[in-house]
Amino acid sequence: LGSTEAFGRLPEPNEFIVIPKSQIHCEKYASSTQAAHCLIYAESNEKVFGIYNPRASILMQLRYDGYFGFPGGLIDSGEDFVTAVNREMAEEMNLDTTIHSVSHDDHVISHWSEKKNLALHFYKLKVKMTELIEIEKRALLAQDYGSEVLGTIRIPLYTLGDHYRGFPVFLKHNFIGCSKEQLIAALSSLNILTPEEIQLALNAHSKNV
Ligand code: GTP
Ligand code: MN
Ligand code: MN
Ligand code: MN
Ligand code: MN
Ligand code: MN
Known about the structure:
binds manganese (II) ion
């Protein structure tokens, strides 16, 4: 018996299920609440503190409700997913969408919550490291900065020598919706971390607790 069964608890059911790519435009989802969010990232081999190789810089945001999440938001009626996510990135990050915008090909994964009657669509936007730095600076002047968005952050994608600080600790934060699942799905599909590295980070625990 695994430890969960031994304590008489069932594994926590994940309320989100993955929507097959061919079904993201189904009527079932079109008639529910839908939102689209985006992972903005740049590949980078520059070492942090001269030792840790983060491989990529990925942006998330601290939201008004205290959770971490990605830029993006609710799809207005009649709006397509891509228009919505680009509009929300302009509102929340002051992103110049005449230079950087997502297209249908940038779709990463979609999830469905029956309980919340909510479909969540996730996109990626790859930029150069110099562009990512400019995007971060511009974000301070976004219309929704200070209200919906309390800050843009970079994710620590490396793990320190104690096998805990860095990415594993970051994963212990509270994430809105299925944004943690979105991050994990993108990290492996964009070949930023291997599934083994992700699993190690998810399973890591502090030796000081
Ligand atoms: P308003 O403009 O104030 O309506 O907010 P918004 O349009 O920016 O919507 P928001 O980004 O809050 O997203 C709408 C809903 O999607 C939220 O209530 C969450 O349930 C969910 N959500 C928010 N951010 C994320 C995210 O990064 N990933 C996922 N999967 N869900 C999210
Ligand atoms: Mn210091
Ligand atoms: Mn918004
Ligand atoms: Mn939003
Ligand atoms: Mn909105
Ligand atoms: Mn808004």
